[in-house]
């Protein structure tokens, strides 16, 4: 059911939150636009400017790796300046209050951790872009190391331990999903009684399967997004408004 206006949407959401014992939020890029990070699919979003580089292309081509890193460096001021918005802070308040045991996110921006979630309680389906990893041995590198290496050699860095390419710690199209995160997200979706899909176009699979899974396992499903999604039909409540406006009233002290 679509909330007729923002006020009644917030009221119904408040009732559902009060009635729930275990809430699992599932967030997408839309929760971070208020923090200044563009999403993928909105006009002006990242995809209107750059075609994504699939994983096999990254592995096969040094030119693709150089381009991927140039794009990442170009985004650095944006990621470095981003601070949690009202959506992040509202969820962090519910986490502190014990209503939310963990959060499942498609986002790679680290803002849920910055808002107060323990890193172990943030299930990152698509990884994290605030650091890098070797795609061979998994060794982690910080951005300053990558930047220095790029500037010294003029190109994308390889691992100093095993010589395989170093990539942001994110999951690209064509790259295997992280098994542990997928298992945890599945369990959380199955065990909650309220599932909140926030700021996701729900078109990237397999991540987009979690709202449906939660609903099929008996949870109430709320979708908060400023444009329609394909799963609106199965949701108990759809709030088609701005996320900051919708979740602002749930930010605690
Ligand atoms: P998406 O871009 O496909 O969808 C975002 C949705 O949020 C859109 O439907 C848009 O209309 C809506 N939205 C944007 N701002 C909003 C606001 N203020 N209020 C309400 N709705 C708003 O993003 P997605 O579904 O997360 O999937 C795409 C992939 O994008 C994910 O894999 C994610 O890793 C990646 N991504 C992440 C970030 C980030 O970490 N912040 C940014 C861009 C892309």
Automatic annotation (TrEMBL):
The active site is at 126 (proton acceptor). Its EC number is 2.3.1.286. It comes from the Bacteria. Its main location: cytoplasm. One of its GO terms (molecular function) is histone deacetylase activity, NAD-dependent. Zn(2+) binds at residues 134, 137, 159, 162. GO terms for cellular component: cytoplasm. InterPro entries: DHS-like_NAD/FAD-binding_dom, NAD-dep_sirtuin_deacylases, Sirtuin, Sirtuin_class_U, Ssirtuin_cat_dom. It is an enzyme of class 2 (transferase). It is found in: Cytoplasm. Residues 3-253 form the Deacetylase sirtuin-type domain. Keywords: Cytoplasm, Metal-binding, NAD, Transferase, Zinc. It catalyses: N(6)-acetyl-L-lysyl-[protein] + NAD(+) + H2O = 2''-O-acetyl-ADP-D-ribose + nicotinamide + L-lysyl-[protein]. The keyword NAD applies. Binds 1 zinc ion per subunit. NAD(+) binds at residues 29, 33, 40-41, 106, 108-109, 126, 200-201, 225, 242-243. NAD-dependent protein deacetylase which modulates the activities of several enzymes which are inactive in their acetylated form. Belongs to the sirtuin family. Class U subfamily. This is NAD-dependent protein deacetylase. The lineage of its organism: Bacteria, Pseudomonadati, Pseudomonadota, Alphaproteobacteria, Hyphomicrobiales.
